[in-house]
Specification:
Distance between the termini: 108 Å
Radius of gyration: 26 Å
Largest sheet: 6 strands, mixed
Structural class: alpha/beta
Number of helices: 3
Helix content: 25-40%
CATH topology: Rossmann fold
Number of domains: 1
Order of helices and strands: HEEEEEHEEEEH
Number of strands: 9
Strand order of the largest sheet: 2-9-8-7-3-6
């Protein structure tokens, strides 16, 4: 009888202990990324297409306001996406943006334009436009993602406005940009995602350069 009681207690204890064992978690912490201002002497392979329409020349003072950037709905997620095929997108659960993408793009474009136009007098949405700003820039983005194992794509349109105290704000030039940037895929998978973000940042620097050229050309036509 005592043997049966001891055996029962042993089996009961094992059951209690086994029920307290927590299975190993499969949860993986997310990594958060930020777009960055890039240098214009980097060696990334870039293919770009630009179409610009001329308007009237205005003051060349490089003061500007970057309006709220328009993004397609699928890019408003904080998960970084890839678009391997037409009509198909993939979300990376563990690779995310560290800030709203629309704000990150605005921040980096503002920094790049400020550098290229040699102007520290600028503002970017959601901040208010500064009094005395000469130019306003509108940007609509259609594509901003990895499109193959080795390239990212920026595709969008921009519009340049000038502020006139008498006539208000009116458009003077616009353009369409299609920019491909190669991703450095020589590193490990963990590093490739960083290189992908750097390539997206580099695409923004190309767009900023095109817009700055448009602004400079207005001064040259005076």
């Amino acid at each position: 009888m005592k043997f049966l009681q001891a055996h029962f207690c042993l089996v009961f204890s094992i059951c209690i202990l086994s029920s307290c064992i927590v299975p190993e978690s499969t949860h993986k912490e997310s990594t958060f990324h930020l777009l960055t201002k890039t240098n214009y002497d980097q060696n990334n392979t870039i293919t770009e297409t630009s179409i610009m329409e001329d308007g009237t020349g205005v003051d060349t003072v490089g003061t500007f306001y970057l309006r709220q950037i328009e993004l397609p709905y699928y890019l408003q997620e904080n998960r970084i996406i890839t678009r391997p095929d037409h009509g198909k997108i993939e979300f990376r659960e563990n690779q995310r943006w560290g800030e709203p993408l629309v704000e990150g793009i605005g921040r980096v474009l503002g920094l790049n334009l400020s550098h290229l136009l040699k102007s520290s007098f600028y503002s970017v949405y959601p901040h208010r436009e500064k009094v005395g700003t000469i130019f306003e820039i509108g940007l609509t983005i259609h594509r901003f993602e990895r499109v193959s194992s080795s390239r990212v794509l920026f595709e969008g349109t921009w519009q340049l406005f000038t502020n006139d105290f008498k006539n208000g704000s009116y458009p003077i030039k616009n353009g369409k940009e299609i920019v491909f940037v190669d991703i450095d895929i020589s590193d490990s998978n963990e590093v490739i995602i960083n290189n992908e973000v750097l390539a997206l940042s580099e695409a923004l620097s190309v767009v900023a350069k095109r817009i700055s050229i448009a602004i400079d050309s207005l001064g040259a036509s005076d």
